Amino acid sequence: MIFKLVGDGRPYPDHGLGQRDWAKIPPRQVRLDQLVTTKRVLALDLLLDEDSTFYGDLFPHVVEWDGTLYLEDGLHRAVRAALQQRTSIHARVYPLPAEHPASGWPADESTAPRPAR
Question: What is the span of the domain harbouring residue 35?
Answer without folding.
Answer: 5-107
